[in-house]
Design goal:
The protein is an alpha/beta fold. The chain is built from eight helices and 13 strands. Strands 1, 2, 3, 4, 6, 7, 8, 9, 10, 11 and 12 form an eleven-stranded mixed β-sheet that branches. The protein has a two-stranded antiparallel ribbon with strand order 5-13. Helix 3 (55-70) links the parallel strand 2 and strand 3 (75-80).
Length: 298
Amino acid sequence: MTLLVMAAGLGSRYGGLKQIDPIGPNGEFILDYTVYDAVRAGFDRVVFVIKEENLQAFQETVGDRIRSRIGSSVEVAYAFQDLHDLPEGFSVPEGREKQWGTAHAVLAARNLLRDGFAVVNADDLYGPEALQLLHDFLAGEKKDACGCMVGFVLRNTVTEHGTVSRGVCVCDENGFLTDIQERTEIGMQPDGRAAYREDGVWHPVDADCIVSMNAWALDGGFIQSAQEGFSEFLRNMTNPMKEEYYLPTAVWNYSRSCGKPLRVLRTDGRWYGVTYREDRQPLVDYIHKQIKAGVYPA
């Protein structure tokens, strides 16, 4: 049972892996808690997608902690996201330095993925329930869906320190995903309501709506579909310096091509991340409370 953790962006976001700000009492990162939640849910294999130059630092921190604190029986593997890892017939546009996006990050691990798998971001704390939902979907006989997304309640994913980008989900009466509306500036208003800003104008949005936080479980057919989609993406780029091949787009296209829907599994758990510097202390406080409550060991 494999969990894929997308961590190749950590170096660029934080200025190098060793500079990641720990949030646990013994130097733990967010992804340490995610892996702990995953193993407790039943995952027994973790694949990290990282930059190759970060391998030694990653092994000496996260890898060692998994073996010494979480479980020596957990298989750990690494895949490297490489800008030059392209389909035959394509090359990196001259001057491009930006990676190809989250769907490309998943493809970086294509030779390590067996059948179905779950995928999450390294710098998002999803909580125990979300990882359990992903595991249980993969462990069950979900013949009616090609994958699932853990859907968070919007009000549980916002910060008081600024706006956030979220994919607002639209579902049918059976809980299948029918649309994702990308909103790049969502914030809570002083009156407690949520709104998103577009072209300088604020528009209301339901604070109890379901949003995507890039937590997916996908069946074995996804990889081939994503590879084909990546070639199409490269052929149709209009801004070769900046465009990215995003995972939600690849998942959505896979669902349409295979003729099976995507199930949305709601969690009322709290999501935490460090979107702004001021978000770190509330996250540290939350971890401390969870340790006191017995959710996490010290």
